[in-house]
Amino acid sequence: MNEASPRQIGLGAIFKVFLVAGAISFGGGVVAYLREYIVRQQKWLDDDDFFDALELSETLPGLNSVNMCVIVGDRMRGAIGAITAVAGLMIPGMIVVMTLGVLWDQQRRNPDVRAFLLGVAAAAVGLLATVTLQLGHKQFVRFPDVLFIAATFTAVSLLKLPLAIVLLTIGPVAVWYYLPRNHPAETAHGFQHLRQRFHSNRAHWRH
Questions:
Q1: In this structure, are residues 24 and 93 in contact, taking their beta carbons and an 8 Å threshold?
Q2: Quick one: which H or E segment has residue 55?
Q3: Is 77 exposed, middle or buried (0-12, 13-18, 19+ CB in 10 A)?
Q4: Is 114 helix (H, G, I), strand (E, B) or coil?
Q5: Is the pTM of this model over 0.90?
Q6: CA separation for the pair 76, 68 (Å, rounded)
Q7: pLDDT tens digit string along 76-94?
Q8: What's the rounded Cα separation, in Å, for the pair 202 and 198?
């Protein structure tokens, strides 16, 4: 994370960043925009911190993008920062959806509108693929990780198995593989990394 104190980050700056991300992003592509602004431009978080927040947001109920707003906003300025980030992200979408809801009945059969939505969907997929490659490059160079990724992709995309079954089968196997008894050296390094992050977060919370 940036060495600057979180209290130096203004609520206006947080609101502006999330407002822009919410206004110009579509669907799951919002994660790509959040990384661009939070990590690359503002440098409020580094890639590891952003990836940690993304992992946590995916394990919690609700939309990943909203969960990310809560986590990052809280990291920046506590509860008020979380509220500000969520408001910034949600306001543009609420306005657009309410407007489109009024016009949709008249334009839903318009071929130009359908073409526009297909183009937006393709762009969102491209953004997600880019973020996946940027954040997951460490996993793509280790054979066990590649094996788990390939097994999950095959089960969900090719075999069309229910996601719940895939999570209940491949998930436990992956967890078992990374248990401490299997990789004591890597686990010790991982625990040391977690301890460092815990102390860093505790120092932030005290402020």
A1: no
A2: helix 47-59
A3: buried
A4: helix
A5: no
A6: 12
A7: 899 999 999 999 999 988 8
A8: 6
